[in-house]
Amino acid sequence: MIKIGSHVGMNMPNLFLGSVQEAVSYGANTLMVYTGAPQNTRRTPLEKLRIEEAQTCMQNHQIDSFVVHAPYLINLANSVKPEIFRLGVEFLISELQRTVAMGSHTLILHPGSHVGAGSDTGINKLTEGLNEVLSASVDCNIALETMSGKGSEIGQTFEELARIYDGVKQNEKLRVCFDTCHIHDAGYPIVTDPDAVWTPFDRILGMDQIAVLHINDSLNPCGSHKDRHANIGHGMIGYGPLHEIVHMKAFDNIPMILETPWIAVDPKGKEKQAPYQREIAWLREP
Question: What CA–CA distance (Å, rounded) separates 84 from 86?
Answer without folding.
Answer: 5
